[in-house]
Specification:
190 residues; mainly alpha; two-stranded antiparallel ribbon; 7 helices
Length: 190
């Protein structure tokens, strides 16, 4: 009888150990897996953002990278996957576009619309086009993003994007700054 009781206790201990290991893997390993997707994305686009900044003297690399992260969820959004569009830039690119639903904000209230977004052949084209948009402005205002280009640091640039109406999200600057600080993207600005 004592032997059966010891066996049951041993069996219960094994079951608890297995359940504990499963829970541990869910809470410790899964978040680490997400990080493993994030770092390769940053590693892929950071050199391009730095190169574009060096060539043009334009957008701070930290801002470009943070915008790509925020707008595309590390290149995993439906728009990024279908159209290599990392920035949610509307319109068409060399005649190519995709229609998708998007969330917009007006008077701090969100609403959903269907819009046409630029479709790029690759991520580098998206990064180049984003830089061109910030440097050259919009068709209706060539100085649209002047304040972004005049910014001396990423905090100023993030708030300038909101001031210059890049995004309708009222929390856009704060989100960009949080991403830049979380992933230490400011190191690419030097």
């Amino acid at each position: 009888m004592k032997r059966i009781c010891k066996y049951r206790k041993y069996k219960v201990s094994i079951i608890l150990l297995v359940v504990g290991l499963v829970l541990l893997s869910v809470f410790l390993i899964r978040p680490f897996m997400k990080e493993n997707r994030e770092i390769p994305f940053v590693d892929e686009i950071a050199p391009i953002a730095v190169e574009l900044n060096q060539q043009t003297g334009g957008v701070l690399p930290s801002i470009t990278i943070a915008q790509a992260i925020l707008e595309s969820n590390f290149g995993e959004s439906e728009l990024a996957v279908k159209a290599n569009n990392l920035f949610g830039i509307k319109g068409s690119y060399k005649g190519k576009s995709v229609k998708m639903q998007t969330i917009e904000y007006k008077n701090n209230k969100s609403y959903t619309i269907e819009a046409e977004f630029r479709a790029y052949p690759d991520l580098k084209s998206a990064l180049i086009d984003h830089t061109k948009l910030i440097l050259e402005g919009t068709s209706w205002n060539e100085q649209q993003y002047y304040d972004v280009l005049a910014a001396s640091n990423y905090q100023e640039a993030a708030y300038a994007l909101k001031k210059n109406h890049y995004s309708t999200d009222p929390m856009y600057p704060e989100k960009l700054i949080a991403i830049i600080e979380q992933y230490n993207l400011g190191k690419y600005d030097n």
